[in-house]
């Protein structure tokens, strides 16, 4: 199984959404069976909405970090992360989020978690990092 990344990159000249599917080059080994899906959509407000679902772990955290860094360089708005559909997140996932946050701060931008499922909430609470993404 491959990590599937789905990026929605703004409207095209015809007004239709331009969607690109990227198959990341890192295969997932069992038991990481669900994979990872990431949607990136610029909002009319200038913010950038990022929706993540599936498991974030050692096998695919680098892919999440890469997509967030690409979103930061491709768009000018603050990133708003919806992690409500994340079913698992380990320290590698947290490190990916922290790396993207550091890049956002260096660029003078924000990166906020607007929704989080129980696995993400628990990790943020255990590591006392929730306030960094508020």
UniProtKB/TrEMBL annotation:
Location of the STAS domain: 46-134
Gene3D superfamilies registered for this protein in UniProt: STAS domain (3.30.750.24)
InterPro entries linked to this entry: MlaB-like_STAS, MlaB_ABC_Transporter, STAS_dom, STAS_dom_sf
Pfam families with a match to the protein in the record: STAS_2 (PF13466)
Transmembrane regions listed in the UniProt entry: none
PANTHER family: BLR2341 PROTEIN
Protein name: STAS domain-containing protein
Source organism (scientific name): Streptomyces subrutilus
């Amino acid at each position: 199984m491959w990590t599937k990344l789905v990026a929605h990159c703004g409207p095209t000249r015809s007004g239709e959404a331009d969607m690109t599917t990227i198959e990341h080059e890192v295969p997932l080994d069992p038991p990481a069976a669900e994979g990872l899906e990431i949607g990136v959509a610029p909002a009319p407000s200038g913010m950038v909405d990022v929706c993540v679902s599936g498991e974030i772990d050692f096998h695919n955290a680098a892919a999440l970090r890469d997509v967030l860094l690409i979103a930061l360089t491709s768009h000018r708005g603050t990133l708003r992360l919806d992690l409500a559909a994340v079913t698992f997140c380990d320290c590698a996932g947290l490190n990916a989020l922290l790396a993207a946050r550091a890049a956002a701060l260096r660029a003078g931008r924000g990166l906020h978690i607007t929704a989080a499922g129980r696995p993400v909430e628990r990790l943020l609470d255990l590591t006392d990092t929730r306030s960094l993404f508020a």
